[in-house]
Amino acid sequence: MINFKEVNKTYLDSIVALDDINLSIEEKEFTFITGPSGAGKSTLGRLLIREERPTQGEIFFEEVDVVNLPKKFLPEYRQQIGVSFQDLKLIESRTVRENIEFALEIIDKHPKEIGEITEYLLDLVNLKERADLLPICLSGGERQKIAIARALASEPKALIADEPTGNLDPKSTGEILDILKSINDIDTTVLVITHDESIVNNLNTRVVTLDQGKIVSDKVGGYKYQKTSKKDDKKEEREEKEEKKEKKEKRGSKKNETSKTEKKESKKEKEQNEIEMLELPKEVEEKLLANGIDELDKLLDLTESQIKKKGITEEDLNKITSRIEELNNLREK
Question: Quick one: pLDDT at residue 262?
């Protein structure tokens, strides 16, 4: 469903956010994207919704080529991916209900549908009793629930929850996790971007771990991140540089060999074509080849006496001379 192919993202030509990311996420899968701050987790999400483009690589959502998708199709595309942002992006002047309704209004839902979907989402995130309160009146966990409900307003195929349990107490964290699981149970693909070990360890599901922009682990299980030492980092970086240098040298060597072969073949082909263009009698051509005259230039360098010594008659010589003149005329044309 979601495919990142050799994706790189660099800022200011030197800050590497993502380095050679190859990642596939199946439909209806529940996946944690983990790692320390600055590992590139949120960058993955921004690239998927085309908030940014990668410096290099391909990204596909089902059959959609995200990187090259025309701008006019972005609103429709983004309706397929709900996002619960890290900073929530709630409208503080609107109630819980109005926040959800607004998300439905901007995608042109019918008033009747807006009412029905809003009630369904309020029930899904357990906020019916808080529906008419402003966000400022709610706890951190409840505010997060509004963000999740609003992200589901367009009935997306996938949900990205960016740090959904940041700074929440254990009870609220558990409630958010239950909501995310229930969303996945209704066949929505869920990606949870987090560095919260507690929620990762609570589910025996896929965990993709990033560090310094690279995928360092991709397995089913708990939070496995362990910072590598600077010594190991330098060793790994050195090995990568040596490997890249070796590949580059091999490519260069292969390219040179190919170039030499092509030149030889081109020269041979050229010679053969020139001899054929002379259209000499077979016996004359055999005499030339028997005397080592396998190139047109060699034939042109011979004097008349040298040609006669090689057994070529005056009649043959006249024919050769005539054909050479014709060939010269062809060259001039």
Answer: 52
Residue 257 lies in a domain: no
Q: Is the pLDDT of residue 258 over 60?
A: no
Q: Output the DSSP codes for 270-306.
A: HHHHHHHHH---HHHHHHHHHTT--SHHHHHH--HHH
Place of tokens 């396998």: 294
The number of domains in the chain is 2
Give the SS3 label for residue 221: coil
Q: Quick one: what percent of the chain has pLDDT higher than 90? A: 58
Question: Which of 165, 167, 171 shows the shortest CA–CA distance to 145?
Answer: 165
- Provide the pLDDT for residue 13: 78
Q: How far is CA 98 from CA 155, 254, 261, 317, in A?
A: 17, 65, 72, 101
Residues 76 and 154 in one domain: yes
Decide the pairing of beta strands 189-193 and 30-34. parallel
Please choose, from the candidates 188, 149, 140, 135, the residue with its C-alpha nearest in 3D space to the C-alpha of residue 25.
Answer: 188
pLDDT for the residue 201: 83
Look up the pTM and report it.
Answer: 0.66
Task: For residues 116 and 12, state if they share a domain.
Answer: yes
pLDDT digits (tens, 9 = 90+) for 149-198: 999 999 999 999 999 998 889 899 999 999 999 999 999 999 999 988 87
Does 31 map to a domain?
yes
- Are residues 30 and 174 both part of a single domain? yes
Q: How would you list the strands of the sheet with 64-65, edge to edge?
A: 15-25, 2-11, 56-61, 64-65
Q: Please report how many Cα atoms fall inside a 13 Å half-sphere around the Cα of residue 120, on the Cβ side.
A: 12
Return the sign of the alpha-carbon dihedral for residues 213, 173, 165, 122.
Answer: positive
- Cα three-residue angle 183-184-185, rounded to 5 degrees: 90
Domain that holds residue 207: 2-227
Shared domain check, 176 and 89: yes
Fill in the amino acid letter for 47: L
